[in-house]
Amino acid sequence: MALRHLSVKTLFFLGLCQVGRRGFASSPEVREAPKKIAIIGGGIGGTAAGFFLRQEFGPAVKIDVFEAGTVGGRLATENIGGHEYETGGSVIHPLNLHMKHFLDKLSLSPRADVSSKVAIFDGKELTFEESDWFIVNFIRMLWRYGFNSIRMHMWVEGILDKFMRIYQYQQYGYSFSSVEKLLHAMGGDGFLTLFNQTLEEAMLAEGFSQVFLNDVVTPVTRVNYGQSVQISAFAGAVALAGADSGLWAVDGGNKMVCSGLLYHSKAELVPARATTISMKMRPSKTGTVHLEHYNSASNFYEVNYVGESGAAHSMYDIVVVATPLHQGMSDISFSGFSPPIPSHFPGRYHQTVATLVHGLLNVSYLGTTEKPEDFYVSEVLTLENKASEINSLSSLNPVKIPKGYSPSPASQRKVWKIFSSQPLSQQHLQQIFLSWDSVFEKRWLAYPSYSPPNRRTPPFILHDRLYYLNAVEWAASAMEMSAISARNLALLAHHRWYEQTDKINQEDLDTRLRGEL
Prior knowledge:
Elements: H1 3-18, H2 21-24, E1 36-40, H3 44-57, E2 62-66, E3 77-80, E4 83-86, H4 97-106, E5 118-121, E6 126-129, H5 134-145, H6 148-163, H7 165-171, H8 179-195, H9 199-205, H10 210-225, H11 233-241, H12 255-264, E7 268-270, E8 272-281, E9 299-307, E10 310-316, E11 318-321, E12 333-335, E13 349-361, E14 379-382, E15 392-395, E16 414-420, H13 426-432, E17 433-448, E18 461-463, E19 466-468, H14 479-497, H15 509-516
Parallel strand pairs: 1-2, 1-11, 2-7, 5-14, 8-12, 11-19
Antiparallel strand pairs: 3-4, 5-6, 8-9, 9-10, 13-16, 13-17, 14-15, 15-16, 18-19
Helix pairs in contact: 1-4, 3-12, 3-14, 4-12, 6-11, 9-11
């Protein structure tokens, strides 16, 4: 990427780290600050929302985070043989500025880098195996696909350059009321087009060959989203960015960001499952009910929940739902709203099964003639055909790299992670492995099933002061997308509370900044 672009992005990052709360948004005194805020969900989106809401509304507001499971949500680890391994979201892009900012604030560190090699498997044999030499890989790709590979990196880089605009908008306190408006602020009509066409359509229109899409692009979308090049082009571009160089993870596990944000925000963890959110009217001192316009603070939200001590409820001025409101993901119901709020929005989440196996790989399953002691491939991607029953096969490194650690060949027992759409049978495991000590299976409804065009995206604003963070996942699902949505909703909640409409849905940032200066 060009140095001039890197310098601008570095400037944005420094701004994110150094500008304080008042630098993002001022708090007018014409209205009393909210007293209580509820966040439903303790994953990266919910804990980031707590962090940013604290930043916007100050130290006095009480923030409760409802999480019935483990803090981290789809960021999770599993202990195998005394070491923790990632079972959920595992990689972060070098240009994910919010995640970098979180590490700085929480005094966390990136995990030590470990060398890796990639191969592509067609269900019978390896069609491509990465060399230790860059020039060899370059010549191979050039021979097979011409300049498609180079052009793909340039295409993704162009999208990332526009994507980076959101950090500047957020640095200056601007927010957006819908996913579409957020995307348009980043990349104009071009991003909305990417959002509503398939990755295959977009890349073919850019002149990429169908063979390149089948052989190179599809394996990347399969490992990152478990889906083909029929996913939306915007989500596909995020997937391709997830195959870029410089990817990193958090030392000790990515879920540590969530627990760190929860602690830093001074939010209270409520270990309970939210069941119902209702709108209530606040009684006056005379016992009557205020009937002012709903935009006033006379109404509030009652969150009903069930924990270890049984059922209970609490009242809040602002509520952020940071868990997917889709079938199989949530059982929250909404009561007393007009128009009614659905418990489940259209669309479904795609199942990805993560199977962690501590065992000895059967390299002949991959159709290679290499000896196990010489086989150092750590990431096997797959083509889309009936012979490929798995989406990927990768050897895992612990979330905390021991001193002196180095990758081991396939002749040694180690932890492998298999992504597949369905659980693996005993017979299938016997094909892939010569033997194993343990098998751990986690079935994730990991990300939406992307089927453009997106005729109706879930809203950010469910009601006056009731927000839906996970709507952003229908553009693309990633840790940074959740963090961006959390920042956007914290700003949106702040501006709507204080009626700062000039900070909502405003584009042409450069022009506006010149006017403000």
